Structures are given as C-alpha cells and as structure tokens.
Automatic annotation (TrEMBL):
InterPro entries reported for this sequence: AAA+_ATPase (IPR003593), ABC_ATPase_HisP-typ (IPR030679), ABC_transporter-like_ATP-bd (IPR003439), ABC_transporter-like_CS (IPR017871), MetN_ABC_transporter-like (IPR050086), P-loop_NTPase (IPR027417)
Broad class of the protein's primary localization: membrane
Chain ranges passing through the membrane: none
Family: Belongs to the ABC transporter superfamily.
PANTHER family in the cross-refs: AMINO ACID IMPORT ATP-BINDING PROTEIN, GLUTAMATE_ASPARTATE IMPORT ATP-BINDING PROTEIN GLTL
Presence of the UniProt keyword Disulfide bond in the record: no
Topology in membrane: Peripheral membrane protein
UniProtKB keywords: Amino-acid transport, ATP-binding, Cell membrane, Membrane, Nucleotide-binding, Transport
UniProt-recorded name of the protein: Amino acid ABC transporter ATP-binding protein
Species whose genome carries this gene: Kribbella sancticallisti
Lineage: Bacteria, Bacillati, Actinomycetota, Actinomycetes, Propionibacteriales
ABC transporter domain ranges (all copies): 4-238
Localization (cell): Cell membrane
Length: 242
C-alpha cells in the first residue's frame, strides 16, 4: 500500500485552477521528486499534503487515513509529516537546540529532558551536534537548513516534504544539504521533494513527476522522465533549465 496516495486533487485560488486533477502514489521509503515550471503548483501540492491548504476536490490518504476528511485532527496529521521550506524559518532569538525542541515541548507536550535528548540525537544526525547552543545567525546557510531538517525530523515523521530547500543557498553549500537528503533516503525515509537539482533527482529519486499546469504530465523513473521524456512539454522544460 502507498504511504501517500493523492487522487484527483483539485485546488483553485479564486478562478486560478492550480491543481487540476492531480494524482500521485508514494510508496514507503520512496523518494519522489517533483519538477515543473514556476507556478505549476508544486508548492501548493506540498501545502495540501501538510493541510496548510484545503483541497477543493479529490482525496489525499496518508498511511491509509483520508486526511482530507474535514473531521480529521490537523495537528495529529501534521505531527506525522516533516516539512522544510526554501527559507529555513528558524527563530533567530532561539538557540539551534531550542528551535528543534520548541514544537515537541509546546505543541506535543513532550517532557523537556526527553525533547532535548531527542533533539541532540537529531542534531547529531544532521552533523550539527557541536552547534546546539549557537544562534541561527552564527550558522552558515547550509547549517541553518540542516537545523531546519533536524527540526522536521524530531517527531519521527512518516513522510518528509521538502520544498526547494537548496534554492536560497550559495552554490558551495548546496551539496551538504543534498548529501543529508541522500542519507535520509538510505535510512528509508519517505520523501516528496520539489527541486531543480537534476543531478540529485537523477541519482536519488525513485520517481520523477513533471507537473504541467497542475497535472502530473509524466511520472516515471528518472532515467525515463529526465533522460528520455515521452512528452514534448517535459522535453521543453528540461531544455530550458539545462
Ligand atoms: P510552484 O511551487 O510550482 O512555483 P505554486 O504552487 O507556488 O507553484 O503556485 C501555483 C499557482 O498558485 C501560482 O499561480 C500562484 O500564484 C498561485 N498561488 C499559490 N498560493 C496562493 C495563495 N495562497 N493565494 C493565491 N494564489 C496562490
Ligand atoms: Mg514553489
């Protein structure tokens, strides 16, 4: 069974139809990369999965539960999903450690000592154990993004959503974040990732999905979608970004 099943999702903002019958299956442990032009609906899709937006039509199931059911407990659904954005969104006045423990303590009622131990484990996982007491502005962009990933991992999510997490980084810092995502994939994490990093998609993705005007125009292994696309529009997009 899929861990994430997105079926015929529609979403409009006013008369702007952004997701137009979008369907995608993500199996446990899979890394699925979403590609597509700016405005094609990639971020909206991730936001719908994390219930930051409500869908107009269609179904999203996470681990067999219909999370688009209006009676669903959104906090509970979100606690099973880690999300990381382009901007790291760390709280500047808090240490790295406090950024990571904030939600567990405040939202999920985890005991402070338990939350700290778990956060230190996650900071170690992302190579930032030595920076636990630092403030975000004492970290490089790549380190800040790794701290944001540690924060997203701290609840042991079933699914990680990553929205262009390397786009704001200086080029020399991109690799350390992509290497971390590659490690997470090796550990069996299920991930849905929007990125323009095609070499990452080629080497790590199980499936690549090309979004075109809110529809999944082409879904398949990277060797197919990136190297030998069937659709002229996929070919045109890849030509433009190369
Ligand atoms: P992508 O991430 O692929 O660049 P987005 O999902 O961000 O695309 O945006 C898709 C379309 O939805 C764009 O036309 C954008 O302007 C519109 N959109 C996204 N979020 C909102 C919002 N909160 N309100 C109105 N329009 C939005
Ligand atoms: Mg986007």
């Amino acid at each position: 069974m899929s861990l994430l099943s997105i079926r015929d999702v529609r979403k409009s903002f006013g008369d702007n139809l952004v997701l137009d019958g979008f369907s995608l299956e993500v199996e446990p442990g899979e890394c699925v990369v979403l590609i597509g032009a700016s405005g094609s609906g990639k971020s909206t899709l991730l936001r719908c999965v994390n219930l930051l937006e409500t869908v107009d039509d269609g179904v999203i199931e996470l681990d067999g539960t219909d999370i688009t059911d209006p009676r669903i407990n959104t906090d509970q659904v979100r606690s099973g999903i880690g999300i990381v954005f382009q901007a790291y969104n760390l709280f500047p006045h808090l240490s790295v450690l406090d950024n990571v423990t904030l939600a567990p303590i405040r939202v999920h009622g985890v005991r402070r000592d338990v939350a700290r131990a778990r956060a230190l484990e996650m900071l170690d996982r992302v190579g930032l154990a030595a920076k636990a007491t630092a403030k975000p502005d004492e970290l490089s962009g790549g380190q800040q993004q790794r701290a944001a990933i540690a924060r997203a991992l701290v609840n042991s999510p079933k699914l990680m959503l990553l929205d262009e997490v390397t786009s704001a980084l200086d080029p020399e810092l991109v690799g350390e974040v992509l290497d971390l995502l590659t490690d997470l994939k090796s550990d069996g994490m299920t991930m849905l990732i929007c990125t323009h990093e095609m070499s990452f998609a080629r080497s790590v993705a199980d499936k690549v999905c090309f979004l075109d005007q809110g529809r999944p125009l082409e879904i398949g292994p990277p060797a197919q979608v990136l190297e030998n696309p069937a659709e002229p529009r996929t070919r045109e997009f890849l030509r433009r970004i190369r």
